[in-house]
Amino acid sequence: MGVELTLSSLRDLSEGAAVLGTGGGGDPYVGRLLVEQQLRAGRTIRVIDVDELPDDALVLPCALMGAPTVFWEKLPGPEGITTAMRTLEAHLGRKAAATMPIECGGFNSMIPLLLGAETDLPVVDADGMGRAFPELQMETFAVMGVSGSPMSIASDHGDAGIINAVDNKRMERLARAMTVQMGGSAYICDYPMDAATVRRTAVPRTLTLARRIGETLRMARDQHHNPFEALTAMLADTIYSHGLVLFRGKVIDIDRRTVDGFARGKVRLAAMEDPDDTMEISFQNEHLVARRNGELAAIVPDLICTLNSETGSPVTTEALSFGQRLTVYAISTPAIMRTPEALDCFGPPGFGLSELYIPVEELASGRA
Amino acid sequence: MGVELTLSSLRDLSEGAAVLGTGGGGDPYVGRLLVEQQLRAGRTIRVIDVDELPDDALVLPCALMGAPTVFWEKLPGPEGITTAMRTLEAHLGRKAAATMPIECGGFNSMIPLLLGAETDLPVVDADGMGRAFPELQMETFAVMGVSGSPMSIASDHGDAGIINAVDNKRMERLARAMTVQMGGSAYICDYPMDAATVRRTAVPRTLTLARRIGETLRMARDQHHNPFEALTAMLADTIYSHGLVLFRGKVIDIDRRTVDGFARGKVRLAAMEDPDDTMEISFQNEHLVARRNGELAAIVPDLICTLNSETGSPVTTEALSFGQRLTVYAISTPAIMRTPEALDCFGPPGFGLSELYIPVEELASGRA
Hints:
The structure is a homodimer.
Chain A: E1 3-4, H1 7-20, H2 29-40, E2 46-48, E3 58-66, H3 68-73, H4 78-92, E4 98-101, H5 111-119, E5 123-124, E6 126-127, H6 140-143, E7 151-154, E8 160-164, H7 168-181, E9 185-189, E10 193-194, H8 195-201, E11 203-204, H9 206-222, H10 227-235, E12 243-259, E13 262-270, E14 278-284, E15 286-292, E16 295-299, E17 303-308, E18 325-331, H11 340-346, H12 360-367
Parallel strand pairs in A: 2-5, 3-4
Antiparallel strand pairs in A: 1-2, 3-9, 3-10, 6-11, 7-8, 7-9, 12-13, 12-18, 13-14, 14-15, 15-16, 17-18
């Protein structure tokens, strides 16, 4: 059942997940090393399509919650995420048939693979964000009425808990408070659901998308092709249909603070040929809005990616530095992420932004 | 089985619990009104001795966690504490045979009575603090190796959770963080144990003690006797053997701040006859240390109570005000609360105090 993950597809997946992290989500690098370790130890990881599961199969999505900066200092292990899953299984009185990412972008693409290796459960090729978002209620699952509760939470120290919140926003707040007390990061399983609900509410085949993005960038580098053109060509036949270069320039200013457990700030780029031509990107963990000379160029939930101008490699907000040559590359989100309910949850209002959402491809054609 | 709680014994119990609150624990007044409401509605509350239960009967202690100041603004109801109990029962897969206080001092003397009225479960006449303390690991249960986990926590909004921490201090931190997110107060059931363990680890008959303290003060007022002499005579035949007047004076200074969810501060009293003769009491929710002219007069876990000099009525730290006439009255704690392990947990080191513990009756006889 499913496709066995190889070392080379893992590397592609990891780089693609970093692109889908849109500047946040945590660099998957450390997570990738942990998954590599499992593969080298002879464990197998199977990635399956949700259609391979019967309707009533229990799927337990999983993730690491907390500040990405902490993941680097406190290496996550497979024990914590296994404890989280066993805790939720015990609470539900049912065994999981599969796990899946709640967030395919960034570090959290790796956590279900780690759990799959440890427990021999297949990993469903889908997620609830189609990218990275900073909060637990920002899920297509939630938008379509799935309750995140009961969720489980576990620490590296062996602590575990169950949260049964009245809504997904309250669940986020309660879990966030536990995460802080657990040392800034914690393992979670939330949105327990059957395979039929996954089929109805998840963004499909996002692990495959991440792998293909990574593969495209690797091949473009190997063959000395333009990585951005290759990416745009590849995306055209996916549900993320538009890939667009928004800007090329160098970093001239970074304002980055850690506020309420989030990395918030702005980065400003100036074009190489014309220093008066600038782009400013605001972020809360992930990039939220890009403005070129004050005019809207892209806005959440469309993906705003900061990529190395030479190689196409993704650069997270932690790694931004003065003078870097970056290409700001936008990817349009699939229709399931652009419904009025979805935009309300993780579009501009979800982040307290007053702008209206305009699809990135419309903004681009308006300028053209 | 047990003794049915009457309206008049409830009032005595409530006043005695406020004395055992040693300045903190939250004024039981609001809780008493809620319990009265239950009695008037025809519900019965049975207080039983733990010896009335078979060894393997499951006892679920309960409490309201959070800042006492919040209880006044957000009236607790029976639903929240019932949710907490049902959540823990479901997690354990067992029904409770009884509830009991984890803290007989202050507001938390009332919560198990409320749960008993709502669920018809008897309330065991014992607790784990023998007074009031600010944190969940400060329990004779914990000192004697009982795990506070798994514990349940519930909000007024219907949120509920289970915490399974590796130790009781970590449980306190995780539950405190949840409590803050739940609006500053939350209902908990922790230290689930069988009746045999209650017999071995609890401070016995503390609800009876609270009732007798209240009764003694009420009768002294009615009969125009000195309330402090009456209290000392009554305590002599209990395991809290010594009751001592440490000081009489008026409040000349109060320093009170809310820090990390605790009411911390100092109150200073001067003797009526000699303004140079002063007593200073430091508190963290509850009174911790009393010094007379710089010399130690009493220290935690012995009880330092601030009582109205006329009536003997307890005055909580929130109610302290300039010019009040107060009698500082100390009560010695029972032997179970004075073992080296107990002192380590809720004696001076448990509160970061550098003083050594000296029993209050020794300090008094040293001065005499």
